[in-house]
Design brief:
By secondary structure, the protein is an alpha+beta fold. The chain is 24% helix and 29% strand.
Length: 63
């Protein structure tokens, strides 16, 4: 299983979690700037060190 899948597995309902590497990718900052983003460090299964994870809430869409 790769790191992206482990990071996204941390997300709760209506949340997206991304790694610091993804957060630093070109254009990502522009997309998430309008959202409330928290940063913390998480232990991921199979990874020997804590990883920086950014968590943002995505409001549910109304249908």
């Amino acid at each position: 299983m790769n790191i992206a899948a482990r990071v996204q597995g941390l997300a709760n309902v209506n949340e997206v979690c991304i790694s610091a590497t993804v957060m630093e990718a070109p254009g990502v900052g522009d997309i998430v700037n309008s959202r409330s983003v928290s940063r913390n460090y998480e232990n991921l299964k199979g990874i020997g060190q804590k990883m920086e994870v950014h968590r943002m809430t995505i409001p549910p869409t109304q249908t």
